[in-house]
AmmeMemoRadiSam system protein A
Amino acid sequence: MSLIYTIFVPHPPLLIPEVGRGEERKCQASLDAYQEVARRIAQAEVETVILVSPHAPLIKDGMTLAVDNIIQGSFAQFGAAQVSLSFENDLVVMAQFQNLSGVVSIQGSIDHGAFVPLYFLQKAGWKGKVVLLGMPLEQSEEYGERIGQILEDLPGRYAIVASGDLSHRLKKDGPYGFDSAGPEFDQFVVNTLQRDSKKIDNLSDDLIDKAGECGYRSLRLALAAKEGAPEVLSYEGPFGVGYLVADLYHSSPLPRWARRCLTSFLKKGGSELLDLADMSTPELTGRRGCFVTLKQGGNLRGCIGTTEPWQENLALEIQHNAIAAGTQDPRFRPVRSEELDTISFTVDVLGELEKIAGPEGLDPWKYGVVVRQRGRSGLLLPHLEGVDTVSDQINIAKQKAGIPAGDSVELWRFEVKRHYE
């Protein structure tokens, strides 16, 4: 299964009730979100967590890797020696990471940047192995991509937990005082995750330095490991430090089902379709329109969808659109079975269409749009690279429908939930 989850979480020790002694309730949004992402990882049956911490020993031109057989520590330095944790190191994954250029092996106890996330994971019932990495100070994306590739080639179920706080300079009475760069940095990170995470590195070194953050590099590493649809579960800064909890990527059964459908169709010559008996995911039993998108080397390789459901359930809707995306998209030659290993699948499940009065009801990062005029209609999905404005969104949808750019149209919007393999 390879990498099935990546999350970004804060690491203030006071979130631990035995340390906070009531103060943690001032961060209730962070607590609730932390418990939720920990529950998700536990339910996903993750076998090994790769934890990237900014408080492990750091080196300028690489990453550090804990090579102890047992990863352990306690919160004694924070007045809670009774809180201790111990995990096995995943020696197979560790050995693979040791082969990475710039990785330096270290020994020592667990730091609080790793301890806090592991505390919540254990409380959620997660039991697995850990690989502990020190956050890279340079080349975060490059390390993220290489780690993602290694995990992709290994058997097992893995999660990357990127630990880090955002700006430490949000309030005058905070630990490092106030700097206007602090709120600016945090707002940029939160907004970018919700809109276009590929632009996360569009910040000046000066702003990053003035913000006094400690999680920006671990966040970028996690985002680079595998593309997803980030979900911000919470953000707050009650003590002058920004705490962000985000689900950056999680594997979905929907694209895997789409892959199986197209694979079966191509390899069996279209003679039979897959039996739906083993598709027990509740989401697949409802009726929804959906789009199946194929990409190869980051480039579009096919996309076919339905704005409203035509099949008796979503499983059949995906099956039909996956086969059509691979064999009937007029923009591309049909996919060959030997190409399938190089193609990625995403499935966009559409919400209900809602008629709106005008462009002010649109947001190209939140809503897709349907334009209609005298029997002609065009659709554009939300959250598309290069489509940054409402006018761009409407004009492209008009173009797809063959409607002149200056013509008035009826506008409909819809939300989409994007699913990645």
Remarks:
- Residues 28-43 form the longest helix (16 residues).
